[in-house]
Design goal:
Elements (H helix, E strand, L loop, with lengths): L18 E6 L3 H14 L3 E6 L8 H4 L11 H10 L3 E4 L10 H4 L5 E4 L5 E2 L12 E3 H9 L16 E5 L3 H11 L2 H4 L6 H10 L4 E5 L11 H8 L4 E4 L2 H4 L3 H9 L1 H15 L7 E6 L2 E8 L5 E14 L2 E14 L2 E4 L3 E2 L17 E2 L2 E3 L7 E7 L2 H4 L7 H15 L11 H11 L7 H16 L11 H8 L2
Parallel strand pairs: 1-2, 1-4, 2-3, 4-18, 6-14, 7-8, 7-14, 8-10, 9-10
Antiparallel strand pairs: 5-15, 11-12, 12-13, 16-17, 17-18
């Protein structure tokens, strides 16, 4: 009979073999988990890290903006983890396609799901699927050279105005890259096709950021907001009526100083109107998109929004519609209202929250239940939802590894095939798995390609080219 939650499942002392762990996902959540396992178990653990792409590092590679090179320095730490002899990396291995989770689990004592969020929340409005409308995630993947987005039909040639639905950090990244001079991006690791598109298109004249709530409730952080509102040659606009604050807003800014800083950043930037500005950033607060307007050719030509106001309800303060509507022209519409994780066969899933149900990182057998699925753990966005910064995943990994450690008992571990068995199975199936040495060959080619054009790297955007370069 399988133990229930809280039972001790694995061993920490007097082992006959080392703990064999497989982590699904090589982004920050997965690699922080690997790092914590090495520190916690010492020589008594072996870790295999899988990723569906040949390249590691997940969101650090495909999500962090090209002009945020300092944030990407965490890859040095992750590289050290992957080079540890107790860790094996297997890229180009898709759990669910190349191997089922039900096949993977018997090969290891524990499996950690850390595969992030590769889908998006939808607006749920007419016109959302028109040409020229993209999820911000897709646009970010496009300019960061993610293979899945290299052929995204982004056309900037006739774009003068962009509508961004949302005001979180991802929305701000998109706005900043569209308003920034292409020459300022030419020395970053932006994908070559994106830089070419920005150069050929000229400069976007206007970016509008639409938020359902007010400036005090903006979901971004001060650093990213400051970068955006201080761009050279960009005039910032925030209508005075939308910047008015209520007593509740004042109380919120007093309680959370970051709210005050962001409000002051927007207000201060809007008060400075650079002479002869050719580009404009327009904050549109208390505006909820209700329709993407579409021209006769089927392409987006604007957004229709409903004005909102904030109301206190038993669920907290929410934005409610007023029945007043405005229309705003835009030739490109980006939806930045949240990433969303996808379910994996054989694992319970909370479809409403878009996460794997868990208790402190222990996966539950079913949504709404209390019994854990022994030996199955979760970390990162698929555990808690798409919140926090890269470093948040370190604390998240601590909790998951602590749970795994508490689940262990002074009993011999059952024999498992581990990484050797997995590699043999993949070989038999013809899966071209990329080890860390293969990734280093990809890395070396990218760095060399970048050096030739004055960039940190020129990303390879084709999986086929990656595999050839890796030598598999």
């Amino acid at each position: 009979m399988l133990p229930r939650a809280g039972a001790r499942l694995l061993s920490t002392a007097a082992r006959n073999s080392v703990l064999q762990v497989c982590i699904v996902g090589s982004g920050p959540a997965g690699l922080y988990t690997a790092e914590k396992l090495l520190k916690r178990y010492g020589e008594d653990v072996r870790v295999d890290v899988l990723d569906r792409l040949p390249t590691p590092f997940g969101l650090v590679r495909s999500g962090v903006a090209p002009d945020h090179a300092d944030v990407k320095n965490v890859t040095n730490q992750f590289t050290a983890t992957c080079r540890d002899p107790r860790v094996g990396y297997l890229g180009n291995v898709s759990v669910g396609a190349d191997i089922a989770l039900a096949e993977l689990r018997p090969l290891y004592h524990a499996v950690v799901l850390a595969y992030g969020a590769e889908s998006d929340r939808r607006l749920g409005v007419p016109g959302e699927d028109a040409a020229g409308v993209f999820a911000a995630r897709e646009f970010v993947w496009w300019y960061n050279g993610h293979p899945d987005a290299r052929d995204l039909p982004v056309s900037l040639a006739d774009v003068e105005s962009v509508a961004v639905c949302g005001i979180g950090n991802v929305a701000l990244d998109c706005a900043r890259l569209l308003l920034k001079r292409p020459a300022a991006l030419a020395t970053t690791d932006i994908a070559g096709h994106a830089l070419d598109a920005l150069r050929k298109a000229g400069r976007v004249r206007e970016v509008q950021l639409f938020a359902r709530r007010g400036p005090v409730q903006a979901a971004c952080t001060p650093k990213e907001l400051r970068e955006l509102v201080t761009l050279d040659g960009v005039a910032v606009h925030a209508p005075p009526d939308q910047m008015a604050v209520s007593p509740a807003d004042e109380a919120e800014m007093k309680a959370v100083r970051m709210r005050r800083r962001m409000y002051d950043l927007i207000k201060g930037a809007a008060a400075k109107q650079p002479a002869g500005a050719q580009q404009h950033l327009r904050f549109q607060f208390y505006r909820n998109p209700v329709e993407v307007m579409v021209d006769p050719s089927g392409a987006a030509c604007g957004v229709r929004v409903e004005r909102t106001r904030l109301e206190a309800t038993p669920r907290g303060v929410v934005a409610v519609g007023t029945g007043e509507y405005d229309a705003h022209p835009a030739q490109l519409v980006l939806k930045s209202i949240g990433y969303r994780s996808l379910p994996l066969e054989g694992v319970a899933f909370d479809a409403r929250a878009g996460v794997v149900p868990n208790t402190a990182g222990r996966v539950l057998r079913e949504y709404g239940g209390s019994e854990v699925d022994p030996g199955l753990y979760v970390c990162g966005w698929v555990k808690r939802g798409p919140t926090g910064i890269i470093g948040t995943n370190s604390m998240d990994a601590d909790e998951t590894v602590d749970s795994m450690y508490r689940d262990t008992a002074a009993l011999p571990l059952r024999p498992v095939g581990g990484g050797a068995a997995l590699r043999e199975l993949l070989r038999q199936r013809g899966v071209r798995a990329v080890d860390f040495g293969g990734w280093q060959r990809i890395d070396a080619r990218e760095v060399a390609g970048g050096a030739a054009v004055g960039k940190p790297r020129e990303k390879i955007v084709s999986v086929g080219d990656m595999l050839s370069t890796a030598g598999v």
